Amino acid sequence: MNIDLIRQDTKGLSDNKIFFNNAGSSLMPKVVVESMIDYLQQEEQFGGYEVANRNAKLLEQFYEETAKLINTKSSNIAFATSATEAYAKALSSIIFKEGDCIITTVDDYISNQITFISLQKKLNVKIIRTKNLSDNELDLEDLENLIKQHHPKLVAVTHIPTNSGLIQNIEGVGKICRQYGILYLVDACQTVGQMSVDVEKIDCDFLTATGRKFMRGPRGTGFLYVADRILEQNFAPILLDSRGADWTEYNDYELFKTAKRFEHWENSCASIIGFTEAIRYANTIGLDSIENYNKKLAEKLRGNLQNAGFKIQDKGNHLSSIITFCGPDGDLENIQRVLKEHNVFSSVTYKNSALIDFTNKNVNGIVRLSPHYFNTMEEIETVSEILKNSLK
Ligand SMILES: Cc1ncc(COP(=O)(O)O)c(C=O)c1O
Hints:
Layout: H1 3-8, E1 18-19, H2 30-46, H3 48-54, H4 56-70, E2 77-80, H5 83-92, E3 101-105, H6 110-123, E4 126-130, H7 140-150, E5 154-158, H8 170-180, E6 183-187, H9 199-202, E7 206-210, E8 222-226, H10 228-232, E9 245-249, E10 252-255, H11 269-285, H12 287-308, E11 311-312, E12 323-326, H13 333-341, E13 344-345, E14 347-350, H14 355-361, E15 365-369, H15 377-390
Residues 82-84, 109, 111, 158, 161-162, 187, 189-190, 210, 222 line the site of pyridoxal-5'-phosphate (PLP).
């Protein structure tokens, strides 16, 4: 991995900022922005439909690059405008009835939890959350017992929560879901681009992701993976459009075969082109290399902050490039101010975004630093020093 070259490709780093907010919205490589500008300029000249026809092959590469990213086939990929849109489309293809049960975790993403609560309010769907073990790992035995007891319609797990460094054992969950024939939805929004993802190993039915975070794509992009077994059983979003089916009779349609049936017809093609370039960029570097490098950055930063006296809030045996912490007395504001003064990009999450996790951890919020492969070990040391000095 040539970090110098990667940094030259990242125009956002040219003003000496230290960018540690990749779990929020990362810096796009210049090829991403250039490809989008070029595409928009073509649309300016010829109109969107003509340009889409001319670029049909290039637009198809989105499916090929995404398939490569997560080890599947192009036909299992749908473009989405966000991870949340992909998630809603997947959920809407499952016909929930009163009394049906969804099993999820206490660490799942806020919007997913709100969606489940909405299903509870509107359809009387039951929400059950698995326990964590004392080391904060998912309690797979509890999950299996809950499945046996409640026969859920769906198990839904966020791989890497937005508000904690935790990496959940989604392959372990996948094995149990397959054993009991339960639908399995994985939110990999914070995972893609940060580490390698293999849907064959996870054995999930649906997987959702976004473009603008560790993937380094533009805003308004994401994707949905749909397994063959789901496509073969004719799952489709409840509100289909002409992207999803052929209108064959006055009152009937025939579903298209691929996961594109989970898309809507209208999309920003420039965004798809930019997102494709972002995925190609990561695929070319290699997700294993990115993952190994990120692990070293995160471990170093977490260790330094811990040694300096900050309270690290990442709990679990497998931790990601999301580092969450607060001051020795729970302080967030001072840390935020100091980071801002030194041009370090970070973010803060408050309790309402992680209600269960932060209640259990007894914190009102956390500061989140999320370095990525364009960052250097020197930057890790610089930020550690800045924060250490702020405690003096
Ligand atoms: C774990 C997780 N899931 C889902 C989302 C939602 O992504 P989007 O805003 O692209 O819908 C986020 C966003 O922060 C996230 O961190």
